[in-house]
Design brief:
alpha/beta, eight-stranded mixed β-sheet, 29% helix, globular
């Protein structure tokens, strides 16, 4: 069997201030055809899974472009079209193929393209024809479109948030696509829109139990795969929203009634759970007060400035209050500030100097913080442990300290994933009173074990939690929790 695999992925915050150009893909992950490294990349799960199972099955695996960018603003037309066309050229060079396995995000928006993944999949189908199996993995924070579902034979979203199951879902995709290619399986897709936008934090109830119930339903009564499409609230596209995607076996569900009924039931359950799924946030000073009342390490999540949602990662609102209140025993990061990193490298470890950090990109970054900082540690080309053990590039990085507050500065934008964001620079967050991370949820996999308590902070930022105030123009309404929605499903 001839199998082609490639990846093209980013998550687009259409309200973010900076465009996503080609350099953003080179910073995170850019591997031309045949040059994927000997380690799984975050969106290269299908390719990695094909490497794992292909040799034993006698496959010829042709590896195309793998490119991914840290979430940011709208992708430039030149970047998207250039990357897409490179991937498609790799596919044409690989023909004929029996199977196409793609790693995608699902919420990429480019200048002139509201549905980048739909555009890509339509073009892939045009190239390979109706008989080649096309499968792909998606981040659950996707805008699931009709073009995506109709062009692919199988799409599987990661179930966990944090996304710790990247490889498991990729192996699942490869297994099912193999059965499709060998004519042992035929699938029918059923999609139900919940009429809302919600996020399932699978580290807590009720999302934990809902996700476990979904997993238990797969492989029974003709149900092959179930994906919960959380949606991505900060993407202004017609397809934004929370949906249920069910694939049923045609042999057991010839008219699709069973799959559709299940998708409807699960959508109804999500609608009933919507209030409980909403995350409670604390204001900055409220969060700091609560943290100081604890006895162990308390972790604060700055989700509003999460680069994983398209924010710059340079806001200073929480840092400023920590310094104003003279709170010590604190580590915070990462703050994206390439200029300050360069100055720190020029000064060298041990130097003390006045340094202005953060607050560079937009009003929602806050004002820069000026203080006398000691350069504690420096690291060239630092890489943090990301989701499912995949690498997350930070670039040249510095640990600086002032009045009992340590801050990690980075050259590349990235949210906090692993503890080695700090430990590589000689700072042990488990020994700090207060740890502040720029992340909405993914930090929990690594930081929950060291935390007496985790508090999510309602600070200003591009990834504002009250997204209902954002100036949407394209989303379909009514949609909960927007003011014009009475609640519940609209479709």
């Amino acid at each position: 069997m001839r199998v082609f695999s490639a990846a093209l992925a980013t998550e687009t915050n259409t309200f973010a201030p900076m465009p996503t150009g080609l350099s953003s893909f080179h910073e995170r992950a850019y591997f031309p055809a045949g040059q994927h490294p000997d380690a799984m990349q975050m969106h290269g799960g299908p390719l990695w899974a094909a490497r794992l199972v292909g040799p034993a099955r006698g496959w010829t695996l042709i590896e195309g472009l793998v490119a991914a960018a840290v979430p940011n603003g709208v992708v430039t037309r030149a970047a998207f079209e250039g990357l897409r066309d490179t991937l498609l050229a790799d596919l044409r060079a690989a023909l004929p193929v029996d199977m196409v396995l793609l790693g995608m995000h699902g919420a990429m928006v480019a200048d002139g393209y509201d549905d980048c993944e739909g555009d890509l999949l339509v073009r892939v189908r045009e190239i390979v024809g109706p008989d080649t199996v096309i499968g792909g993995t998606l981040d659950p924070h996707t805008h699931l479109s009709a073009a995506m579902v109709e062009s692919a034979d199988l799409l599987i979203c990661w179930k966990e948030y944090p996304h710790t199951d990247i490889l498991e879902r990729a192996v699942e995709l490869v297994d099912h696509c193999t059965a499709l290619a060998e004519k042992r399986l035929r699938l029918r897709a059923s999609v139900v829109d919940t009429g809302m936008i919600a996020t399932l934090h699978t580290t807590r109830e009720p999302a934990r139990g809902f996700t476990d119930r979904i997993s238990a339903l797969e492989g029974k009564d003709g149900i092959v795969s179930i994906s919960v499409v959380h949606g991505f609230a900060w993407g202004d596209t017609p397809d934004m929203g929370t949906k249920i995607l069910v694939y049923s076996d045609v042999a057991a569900d010839p008219d699709g009634a069973r799959g559709t009924a299940l998708a409807q039931r699960l959508a109804d359950e999500l609608v009933d759970l919507r209030g409980a799924l909403t995350e409670q946030l604390s204001g900055i000073d409220e969060a700091l007060d609560a943290a100081l009342a604890g006895n162990g390490t308390v972790v604060l999540g700055d989700g509003s400035d999460n680069p994983g949602g398209g924010a710059p990662g340079d806001s200073t609102f929480i840092l400023r209050r920590i310094l104003d209140r003279r709170i010590s025993g604190v580590c915070l990061g990462p703050i994206w500030d390439p200029g300050a990193v360069r100055i720190a490298f020029d000064a060298g470890v041990g130097a003390r100097l006045p340094l202005r950090i953060g607050g560079k990109i937009a009003p929602l970054s806050g004002d820069p913080v000026d203080a006398m900082w000691e350069i504690r540690a420096l690291a060239r080309d630092m890489v943090m442990t990301g989701l499912a053990g995949t690498p997350a590039k930070l670039g040249d990085s510095a640990l600086i300290a002032s009045d009992g507050v340590e801050v990690v500065l980075t050259t590349y934008r990235c949210q906090a994933f692993g503890l080695d964001l700090f430990t590589q620079l000689g700072c042990d967050p488990a020994q700090r009173r207060l740890v502040v991370v720029k992340s909405s949820q993914h930090f929990r996999a690594a930081y929950a074990p060291i935390a007496e308590r985790i508090i999510m902070v309602d600070a200003p930022g591009v990834v504002t939690r009250d997204f209902t105030r954002l100036p949407y123009r394209k989303i379909r309404r009514p949609k909960w929790p927007f003011p014009d929605a009475a609640g519940g499903r609209t479709a």
